[in-house]
Amino acid sequence: MMLLIQVCDALENLMEEGGNIVDHHACDFFPECCFDRVVVLQTDSSVLYDRFTKRGYSDHKLASNTECQIFQVLLEEVKENYPDDIVIILRSDSLEDITKNVETLTSWISNWSPVV
Predict the structure, then answer these.
(1) What is the sign of the dihedral through the CA atoms of 87, 110, 21 and 34?
(2) pLDDT tens digit string along 42-75?
(3) Within the chain, where are the H helices?
(4) How far apart are CA 29 and CA 3, in angstroms?
(5) Quick one: which of 43, 64, 80, 98 has the most CB atoms within 10 Å?
(6) From the centroid of its chain, how far is CA 29?
(7) Backbone angles phi, psi at 92, to 5 degrees
(8) What whole-number distance in Å separates Cα of residue 32 and Cα of residue 102?
(9) In this predicted structure, what is the pLDDT of residue 31?
(10) Number of Cβ within a 10 Å radius of residue 78
(11) In 10 A of CB 48, how many CB atoms?
């Protein structure tokens, strides 16, 4: 827990400036004020399982990560911690999805301006 506090403290000054991207698999310890947008990538469970198998994940890690996707654990965590108007859910099943996601996020970043 102390490490998480240190991480948040270190990020706080950087986040105040804006224009940052934070990539993490949990969000319940990041304050809402740090983000203008929260993106949740979702993948079909069978696609996710195949990806993890190709990466050589252990059976335990395969099961744990696949269960998290099936039960939408991260999405629920995001919904509990951030307002709906800043949450974006994107599919990430195929290369086409990923390409579209990159285009969507690149466009959003290009048009971003700090809230004054």
Answers:
(1) negative
(2) 999 999 999 999 999 999 999 998 899 899 999 9
(3) 2-17, 45-54, 59-70, 73-81, 95-111
(4) 11
(5) 43
(6) 13
(7) -140, 55
(8) 24
(9) 80
(10) 21
(11) 19
> How far apart (Å, rounded) are the C-alpha atoms in residues 2 and 71?
28
- How many other CB atoms are there within 10 angstroms of residue 64's CB atom? 13
The encoded tokens of residue 17 equal 């400036």
Check: CB of residue 66 under 8 Å from CB of residue 49. yes
Kindly calculate the radius of gyration of the chain based on its CA atoms and give it in whole angstroms: 16
**Domain limits of the chain?**
41-94
Own/partner pairs, 2-5, CB within 8 angstroms, 24+ separation: 4/29
d(CA 34, CA 63): 32
Task: Please state at what angle helix 45-54 crosses helix 59-70, rounded to 10 degrees.
Answer: 160
Q: Tell me the pLDDT of the chain averaged across its residues.
A: 88
The one-character DSSP state at 32 is G
Q: How far is CA 7 from CA 3, 27, 52, in A?
A: 6, 12, 28
CA distances from 49 to 18, 33, 62 (A): 35, 34, 7
